[in-house]
Amino acid sequence: MTEPSDDTADDRAERVPGAAGEAAERPSALRTAFVLCAVLVAATQLVFITAAAMPPNRASEALRPATSYQNPFFTQNWRLFAPSPISSDRSILFQAAYEVDGELVTTDWVDWTDVELGAVRQHVIGGRAGYVTNKFHSSLAGRHRALSDEQRRAVDVVDPVATPSWEEVEQRVTGAGADPSQRLRAQRWLTYEGSVIALGTVVVQARHRDVELVAVRYRLRTQAVTPYADRRLPRDEREAARPAPVERTSGWRAALPPTGAELDAVERFDRRHR
User: Fold this and answer.
1) Where are the membrane-spanning stretches (predicted)?
2) Residue 100: what are its φ and ψ, rounded to 5°?
3) Given 85, 120, 155, which residue is the final one in a domain?
4) Cα 35 vs. chain centroid, distance in angstroms?
């Protein structure tokens, strides 16, 4: 009669090549690969965040294309400190066009940055509402400059009657004549262009609830601060000593209608802070 074996499960696994040993190694290898990937991603993100947050220098400028994905909500700047303190006031204004008796009528310009800053002036401790258009400003300017001369001419429409659809705008900047790098720059520009036009539509529509907006455009305004040598002059003279503002007006874009809730929220904010 055969006597019972005293072999343990581990002893039997050792006599079966590739059984439990390989099964135990497989999850361990997967875990190792996952951990390595996670560490690599975290390290890369740490490097990019550090590069974006450090004071401006050659390294941060060289890495700017790789760190641009953090714009506009996760960027840091040194505008309160050396080496790049605030040197100018930046504003975004909106204008819209609507139809009356078959003709397009344009609205007055709305300085939405000034309205946003009203929340800051009235509430020393509060939210970050005053920074929305300020964050937009540099990204819009930079992405417009990144377009080629031909792309800019194709989309800088000055007549609201000739406002192209968004499909036409995209075709004009990413058409067959554009190389891959141009198309990539155009897509980045389109992302911000669509966002700021959506904001402009709801801002102007909130002030003109009784009309249907057809086209919207925006204006970027930059005005340098009073020169250091004139900082002790009386207020009126300090303001007169400031350089003239520099402005760029976008082409007309098709309006992007907001929801009722968005209109109500913007209207309440506008009424409180302008």
Assistant:
1) 33-54
2) -135, 115
3) 85
4) 32
Give the angle subtended at the CA of 133 by the CAs of 127 and 134, to the nearest 5°: 85
Residue linked to tokens 């004139």: 230
Q: What is the mean pLDDT of residues 207-219?
A: 96
Say if residue 209 is in the same domain as residue 116.
yes
pLDDT in tens, 53-75: 777 777 777 777 777 777 766 66
Whether 209 and 189 map to the same domain: the answer is: yes
Share of the chain above pLDDT 90, in %: 50
Over residues 258-265, mean pLDDT: 94
In which domain, by residue range, is 81 found?
1-85
- If phi over 0 gives left and psi between -120 and 50 gives alpha, with beta otherwise, what is residue 102? left
How far, in Å, CA of 93 to CA of 108, rounded?
A: 10
Same domain, 52 and 98: no
- Angle CA 127–128–134, to nearest 5: 160
Are residues 93 and 218 in contact, defined by beta-carbon separation less than 8 angstroms?
yes
Range of weakest confidence among 67-76, 136-145, 180-189, 214-223: 67-76
**H helix intervals, the chain:** 9-14, 20-53, 58-62, 64-67, 112-122, 132-146, 149-155, 166-174, 180-207, 235-241, 260-273
Q: Number of structural domains, the chain? A: 2
Q: Is 68 exposed, middle or buried (0-12, 13-18, 19+ CB in 10 A)?
A: middle
Q: Which two tokens stand for residue 103?
A: 């003709």
